[in-house]
Amino acid sequence: MSEQTIIDEIKTEENLVYKKPEALKDTPFHYCPGCAHGVVHRLIAEVIDEMGIQSETIGVAPVGCSVFAYNYIDVDMTEAAHGRASAVATGIKRVLPDRLVFSYQGDGDLAAIGTGETIHTCNRGENVLIIFINNGIYGMTGGQMAPTTLENMKSTTTPFGRDVSVMGYPLKITELVAALPGTQYVTRQAVYKPGLVRKTKKAIRKSFELQKENKNGTCFIEVVANCPSNWKMTPVESNKWLEENMLPFYQLGDIKTPNGRK
Question: pTM for the whole thing?
Fold first, then answer.
């Protein structure tokens, strides 16, 4: 029996451990080691494949590390100005209501320069999905303090730690949008452990399903993430720091569900 025959016999569906989703482009990975973006990209692509919605889906990515989503996810993508992704997503959804529209944004983008767009998109109940990656810092532009930076957390603009008496408190944007009548599903998840990856994927699928059912209201998924490069840590150290410091403040779980459905 030839080596190729043996390989072909092993490569059966029942033995399949890993397969690249069709909706994930064959692009060399460029994110920093340990970055959560690649995991979330894959989850979005897996859900798109499993739901068979690749031709129906449109993504919007603004400025920041999240802008590279269009290099990885093989659906129609539009780039938005910094902070304006939810506004652009609104326009696309209103012109093409049969499409499944999502924005993919970081905390500096969504919760700082884009606060107004985020709040009003959610308050109007636009039938879109907002995916919010929160690593508590500006990633691409040099590690500055973001609205979500924790109290006493160091950054390039808070080298001695965030002083809330001067810089204010960290913003829990997810709890804020959950209080708005226009949101229907609001959840906070993470992807640094396998079990949490599965929960995040479930949330992404649930959000697309709600949008596909034309349920009124915005879906909002926060993913608490790490940024090893700007936190000045190894990937392992950053995961430990996230668990010990980020999660006590940004607690995981569903915050708002449609009609109490979980």
Answer: 0.93
